[in-house]
Design goal:
alpha+beta; eight-stranded antiparallel β-sheet; six-stranded antiparallel β-sheet; globular; about 20% strand; about 550 residues
């Protein structure tokens, strides 16, 4: 048990919990005709095979299946996975694996992505367990790793400081060490220094990038495990990188939730934080959910963050505001790279946050703002947010926002206006976590977990049940939304007991929306602070707190 964090289990115990859970699922799941478990993503076969083999040889684990049978099954799948590699030197994507495997895995076309993270993890798995593999599989690993090294996929410069380049950097160090390639090691060393220098001084261009942040963590943890222990400079550099990454994670952490804006987000990240295995092992302050949509190597590879970093992330008894400055890197940009300002307000029961600026991110996956609740372990949405649908949006998938939004962040209140022009979809979409919700003509009030929410809308709305959340549709844009949250504990201290009392108190604070001649909203929060957001004719918004325009000049990296 950690004295600072109060967490009773150890990270090793939590890793074993994950190993057993995944191994049981891998043993239970029937193999397809191809001899694999999955055809959607080749990497999942490698991950499940790794966990099943690791569990089968660990005699300290209590397992409900035959170890010898499991060990054979794992090795068979791992071998079949390795044989899918393109081993024809001189061909396109030599040394690579296909990503999707349908309909016939051995005929699938190689893809550039799988080897980026899987290659280094394969090197780690082989270092750990190579001596315990059967001769055929051991030889296949040796061959596959040689092809990866000769593929040179990692010999690329650092330009945009994204997760691809992070994995190239780690792979330079991993395979440079494995094949005694001093030039490659030096290339990786410089890439590591350049990357760390940039994200320390400019912030991470991939802010809140899920699930790809975890590829940064795994890649550099893998490199730390595999580089020479005698290379002190490299050991220090990798530890500094990992310390920085976990410090970044801790600042936007609330019991498994990633608070605030996201540059990327998959369906298992939005509207619910489901990809939480790495957080669970590191922090251990929430219940492990039944669903584990992205296993990767969370149970097998670990770097322990400093105890003070973990303590800061876990102890949220004192609310904190987090303001960060990030400089994006757009490689083809001819103008100055944009500066972004992110905000978060974190309490022990809920958090609020987002990005002041709209950015066109990859696949249009930016999550501009959200309220977050701690991960419950029961699945479903733990985020509350509204947005105007944009490019790539599909009904039932609450991602892919348009650029038509302006925001104001202040502690437990978020205000957003939607200056939707004629000809665009005139509705916004909202996400509500499952809980107790009460409706009024232009307001929704809720009690979810240990938090109350008051949502004020400029127009009437409709609700629809979705898997894991309630969807709100508000037509008639331009318009806006005001959301104020409060913990049940804080409300009780103010004499507000129960949702009905909260509704009565907040109804007295209903905001004033102006949507006809201009776009503006004025709101007085329950704490008495006066907030105003308006949109000028030049389409630049102005945010005001108690009559003073909000400045972002104090934001820093």
């Amino acid at each position: 048990m950690s004295e600072l964090t109060g967490i009773k289990s150890t990270y090793k115990e939590r890793q074993k919990e994950i190993i057993v859970r995944i191994a049981i699922e891998a043993d239970r799941q029937q193999l397809l005709e191809s001899g694999l478990w999955f055809h959607d993503d080749v990497r999942n076969n490698f991950y499940y095979g790794s966990y099943l083999f690791t569990a089968a040889i660990d005699t300290t684990l209590e397992l409900p299946f035959n170890r010898d049978d499991a060990k054979k099954k794992a090795q068979d799948v791992l071998l079949e996975t390795l044989l899918l590699q393109n081993r024809q030197h001189g061909t396109v994507l030599y040394g690579h694996w296909p990503l999707g495997l349908n309909p016939v895995p051995r005929e699938a076309t190689p893809h550039g992505l799988p080897v980026e993270i899987m290659g280094s993890l394969m090197a780690y798995f082989y270092r750990e367990y190579g001596g315990l593999l059967n001769d055929h599989l051991r030889g296949a690993f040796n061959t596959a790793l040689g092809h990866i090294y000769r593929s040179d996929f990692f010999r690329k410069p650092v330009i945009t400081f994204n997760h691809h380049e992070a994995k190239y950097t780690a792979a330079k160090l991993v395979f440079g060490t494995m094949f005694d390639d001093e030039l490659l090691i030096e290339d990786g060393r410089q890439s590591l220094k350049d990357t760390l220098a940039y994200i320390r001084s400019k912030g991470m261009p991939e802010y809140g990038s899920l699930p790809w942040f975890w590829h940064w963590v795994q890649a550099f943890t893998c490199a730390l495990e595999l580089v020479s222990t005698e290379d002190v400079d490299l050991q220090i550099g990798l530890k500094e990188m990992l310390d920085h990454l976990w410090n970044v994670r801790s600042q936007f952490y609330l019991r498994g939730a990633w608070v605030g804006a996201h540059s990327r987000g998959w369906p298992h990240d939005v509207p619910g934080d489901s990809n939480v295995l790495h957080d669970y092992v590191q922090f251990g302050d929430f219940r492990l959910p039944e669903a584990m949509p992205r296993t990767e190597y969370a149970g097998l590879l670990f770097y322990e963050a400093h105890e003070l970093v973990r303590a800061v992330a876990i102890d949220r008894r004192v609310p904190v505001e987090v303001t960060k400055l990030t400089q994006k890197v757009i490689s083809e940009a001819t103008e100055a790279q944009p500066l972004l300002h992110s905000y978060a307000y974190i309490t022990e029961d809920f958090a609020a946050g987002g990005m002041w600026e709209r950015v066109e991110e990859f696949d249009n996956e930016q999550l501009r703002w959200a309220f977050s609740l701690p991960v419950s372990g029961e699945g479903g949405a733990n985020q509350l947010f509204f947005f105007h649908p944009g490019q790539r949006y599909n009904e039932g998938d609450p991602r892919h926002q348009s650029r038509y939004a302006e925001v104001l962040f202040h502690k437990n209140v978020i205000i957003s206006l939607y200056p939707v022009p004629e000809g665009e979809v005139d509705s916004i979409v909202g996400v509500l976590p499952k809980g107790e919700w009460k409706e009024q003509p232009k307001a929704i009030f809720g009690h979810v977990d240990q938090a109350y929410f008051a949502i004020f809308l400029s127009h009437s709305y409709q609700l629809q049940e979705r898997p894991g959340y309630v969807e709100v549709t508000v037509k008639g844009m331009p318009g806006g939304v005001v959301v104020e949250a409060m913990s049940v504990k804080q409300a009780a201290e103010l004499g507000i007991e129960g949702l009905d009392a909260f509704i009565e108190a907040l109804n007295l604070k209903a905001p004033k929306f102006e949507t006809e001649n201009s776009l503006e909203v004025q709101y007085t929060a329950l704490a008495g602070e006066q907030l105003q957001l308006n949109l000028s004719e030049k389409e630049s918004s102005q945010a005001w707190l108690n009559g003073i325009q909000i400045s972002l000049n104090n934001y820093s990296v």
